[in-house]
Design goal:
Number of helices: 14
CATH superfamily of the largest domain: Butyryl-CoA Dehydrogenase, subunit A, domain 3
Strand content: 5-15%
Radius of gyration: 22 Å
CATH architecture of the largest domain: Up-down Bundle
Structural class: alpha+beta
Number of strands: 8
Strand order of the largest sheet: 1-4-5-8
Largest sheet: 4 strands, mixed
Number of domains: 3
Order of helices and strands: HHHHHHEEEEEEEEHHHHHHHH
Shape: globular
CATH class of the largest domain: Mainly Alpha
Distance between the termini: 24 Å
Length: about 400
């Protein structure tokens, strides 16, 4: 196993670092480092910047318009953009649906959908979970009935992340009730502006609007929007989820947030508390261990060996780390992390310098503490989405341990 980066890879890192420093908007990086709310313009603006460079599709092969980077180069790219304070790439288009279209779509579908994803111009949403089908996704009930050259879709999807911004949506739908539940599912993409599509916001525990219910009422979708074969959607879904769970490990983000945790601990006067420092050290050890696990996967892929089938392990540990650093930030700020006035934050006061000046002079006065409670509440989701950690442990027991 080779965990050291080659001189060529180090040179690639320097090139990425220099480009990001020159092209990442400073105000956007500040918002990311302070964990402030990001708008659609923030997220899509950065996506378009990457798209012009040809790097939004950084995981794609050359034949589909990507840079054709190795697994190690992709890892370095993620590290450098995250370290600099770039927003995470919204994964539904370039990371999730694009590989499915590339692998199972027709040449016409490649030409129709991939350019808009690669440029960052088209925002994609995911339609997987339903009120009665989360981790048990095979029990989904949203139905698509074939009528001539179109499908008629009826049903509901839920927890649709950032669906309020969506232009297009990829969905798992039931097209047959025969055989096992998995055998009657198809993979269909649709225009979210189609008549009969209704997006309803779900207000989260921390007050944010991140997820949505999406309702389909006799939505007509051209049959040409079916990806691959009818009733083979479960195979395509597994292909997609393997990309999502690896991405969920989030090592680069955890390293950036570890640095932020240390800044907060120093600012709030708990850095010199040995017990608190012990907790930070334990977290850092877990992050390093997770990074080594990711590098082992990269090493296996680079050397041509069979890649380790440990997407579930990466998801489990990565999500637990995310919850832990959010909790430690709350503990560092103590009672000053608790106030949360949704209306004030929605009006944009978080991070405001005038507020900082007014609060200066007593402990906990940093406006950076205002986002700690919302972040902590929001992070409770990480061990649930992408397949709950309880389900992931069962999968790991079956596939890795035997």
């Amino acid at each position: 196993m080779e965990l050291a980066f080659t001189p060529e890879e180090q040179q690639f890192r320097e090139e990425v670092r220099a480009w990001v420093a020159a092209n990442l908007p400073k105000d956007l990086a500040r918002k990311v480092h302070d964990d402030l709310d990001l708008t659609r313009d923030d997220l899509q603006g950065w996506a378009r910047i990457l798209g012009k460079k040809g790097w939004l599709a950084y995981g794609w092969p050359v034949e589909f318009g990507g840079p054709g980077w190795t697994a190690v180069q992709r890892h370095i790219f993620e590290e450098e953009t995250t370290r600099a304070g770039a927003p995470g790439i919204v994964p539904f288009g370039p990371v999730m649906v694009a590989p499915v279209i590339q692998a199972f779509g027709t040449p016409e579908q490649h030409q129709r959908f991939l350019p808009g994803i690669a440029s960052g111009e088209v925002w994609w949403s995911q339609g997987y979970s339903e009120p009665g089908a989360g981790s048990d996704l095979a029990s989904l009930k949203t139905r698509a009935e074939r009528q001539g050259d179109k499908y008629i879709i009826n049903g509901q999807k839920t927890w649709t992340t950032l669906g309020q911004h969506g232009d297009w949506m990829f969905n798992l739908v039931r097209t047959s009730n025969e055989g096992k539940p998995q055998t009657g599912i198809s993979f269909i993409v649709l225009d979210m502006k189609s008549p009969g599509v209704t997006v309803r916001p779900i207000k989260m525990l921390e007050g944010g609007h991140e997820v949505n219910d999406v309702f389909f009422d006799n939505v007509e979708v051209p049959a040409e929007n079916l990806i691959g074969e009818e009733n083979k959607g479960w195979t395509y879904a597994k292909h997609l989820l393997s990309h999502e769970r690896t991405n969920i490990a989030g090592v680069a983000r955890s390293k950036r947030e570890l640095a932020r945790l240390k800044r907060i601990a120093k600012a709030e006067g708990v850095w010199d508390d040995p017990r608190f420092r012990d907790q930070i050290a334990l977290l850092e050890v877990d992050i390093v261990a997770l990074e080594m696990l990711v590098l082992r996967v990269l090493s296996a892929a680079t050397s041509g060996k069979n890649s380790l089938d440990i997407a579930g392990l990466l998801k489990i540990k990565g999500s637990e780390i995310q919850q832990r650093y959010a909790e430690l930030m709350m503990l560092a700020a103590g009672p000053y992390s608790l106030p949360f006035i949704e209306e004030a934050m929605a009006a944009g006061w978080q991070g405001d310098q005038a507020v900082a000046a007014a609060l200066r002079g007593f402990p906990g006065g940093s406006t950076g503490n205002a986002v700690l409670a919302p972040s902590y509440f929001n992070m409770r989701k990480t061990t649930i989405y992408g397949g709950s950690n309880e389900v992931q442990r069962t999968i790991v027991a079956q596939t890795v341990l035997g």
